[in-house]
Design a protein that fits this description.
Blueprint: H1 2-16, H2 20-52, H3 54-60, H4 67-71, H5 74-79, H6 81-94, H7 99-133, H8 144-167, H9 171-179, H10 182-188, H11 190-204, E1 213-216, E2 219-226, E3 230-235, E4 240-244, H12 247-250, E5 254-255, H13 257-261, E6 265-273, H14 283-289, H15 293-312, H16 328-341, E7 353-356, E8 364-372, H17 377-395
Antiparallel strand pairs: 1-2, 1-5, 2-3, 3-4, 6-8, 7-8
Helix pairs in contact: 1-2, 2-6, 6-7, 7-8, 15-16
């Protein structure tokens, strides 16, 4: 068919151009351009039919997974092979008088074909990556680094195939030749190699996931992306910090995922009590404190226990230093513990205590150690602030003062 079409063009060219050689060249050129135009036309037709049939069918299916083929343009990239296939099989027939030109065009077609096959493979890789990310476990095991490595391999294979074809050598010969440059290549791509190793370690050891809250250096926020060479973190002020992947393996960092997955967010904050206000309780002080509902039963029970102890040990209680006595700080600790136990916004299944820390020049630190049941940052700060608002205000009711440097 191509031969008949070429003969018709030659006859038409001969009728207008006296020079037979020029007429044949013009006929060959027109035939090749027609072939190229046919290939482009068939590509556009195939793309149109796919969009009007297959795409519509995919969009109407209940499954969302096949929509990824549309998103990553897998089918339309396959259509790009149509012009290459037509030129591959008919280039020599359209240019019989120009074998050298036909060979050059076939070489160009071969390179084009390699590039298109590579782009199809890349589209399939992207589709597989999107499919993986559609599952919940992808946040626990991100494969962004592996995908980038796979893409790098595809690009490298594409370059090697093109180079081997142009040089007329096998791919294995080129790879062996490049082996002598391995030291230089490792030096150039050392960051990528370290990042690749780091991303594998992060993934295998489950050290980092997308969405984790981490703190490392200037970065303090949620992980947005884990790449081959870097990790993107969105800080709490909405700035973006980029950290080399290998840094998270070679240097320590804090991951708050354990807190997020636990039953609460820890509150561990202290107030400093002025030591000059700590004293043994007098009967008047005890009567006053008994009006506070949260410690009324505690004070009564402690009085009974202390009286029994002092009596059993024949202790002279005329001196306040003898035997056991209650202090306003001890009763205040009991009050705070009862207050925390009655706070519905705390997780009462986790550790909860009120303890003294090492006294210092700033007084006696009284630490509240508990867990907020609400782990949201804003709500957590509200709960913590409410607790300490109450404690600071209540200190004076027990004849205590919060230390404040003058």
């Amino acid at each position: 068919m191509i031969t008949k079409y070429l003969d018709i063009l030659k006859q038409f060219a001969d009728s207008f151009i006296p020079n037979h050689q020029i007429a044949n060249g013009l006929a060959n050129g027109i035939a090749f351009v027609s072939l190229l135009f046919l290939g482009i036309l068939l590509y556009m037709l195939a793309r149109f039919l796919i969009k009007k049939t297959i795409y519509i069918f995919i969009q109407r299916t209940p499954s969302k997974y096949d929509d990824l083929l549309i998103k990553n343009k897998v089918l339309t990239r396959i259509c790009l092979l149509i012009p290459a296939i037509i030129i591959k099989y008919y280039a020599n027939d359209t240019l019989p008088n120009f074998p050298d030109a036909a060979d050059i065009l076939l070489k160009i077609e071969k390179i084009y074909e390699i590039v298109i096959y590579t782009s199809i493979m890349l589209a399939l890789v992207n589709t597989g990556h999107d499919l993986y990310n559609s599952f919940d476990f992808s946040k626990q095991k991100p494969i962004e680094g592996l995908i980038q490595v796979l893409k790098g391999i595809l690009y490298s294979v594409c370059v090697l195939l093109v180079a081997a074809y142009l040089l007329g050598k096998s791919v294995s010969t080129l790879v062996i030749g490049l082996g002598t440059l391995s030291a230089v290549l490792m030096l150039i791509f050392q960051d990528s190699i370290k990042g690749f190793v780091g991303s594998i370690q992060l993934s295998i050891n489950d050290m980092l996931r997308i969405g984790d809250w981490i703190a490392v250096g200037p970065a303090d926020g949620n992980v947005l992306e884990i790449n081959l060479t870097s990790v993107k973190v969105q800080n709490w002020d909405n700035t973006i910090t980029t950290i080399p992947t290998y840094t998270l393996v070679s240097s320590p960092f804090t991951n708050w995922r354990g807190m997020s997955e636990s039953g609460g967010r820890r509150i561990a904050r202290s107030i400093n009590i002025d030591v000059n206000t700590i004293r043994y309780c007098t009967p008047e002080m005890l009567e006053k404190y008994k009006h506070y509902a949260l410690v009324k039963d505690y004070i009564t029970q402690r009085e009974k226990d202390i009286a029994e102890y002092n009596k059993a040990n024949h202790i002279d209680t005329s001196e306040i230093m003898n035997g056991r006595q209650q202090t306003n700080l001890g009763i205040f600790r009991a009050y705070i513990k009862a207050y925390l136990n009655n706070n519905p916004k705390l997780n009462h299944h986790l550790t909860m205590m009120v303890r003294q820390l090492q006294p210092s020049e700033f007084g006696v630190p009284l630490q509240i150690y508990a867990f907020s049941s609400d782990k949201n940052w804003v709500n957590y700060e509200e709960i913590q602030s409410d607790i300490f608002d109450h404690i600071i205000a209540a200190a004076t009711m027990f004849d205590l003062k919060i230390y404040q440097k003058h």
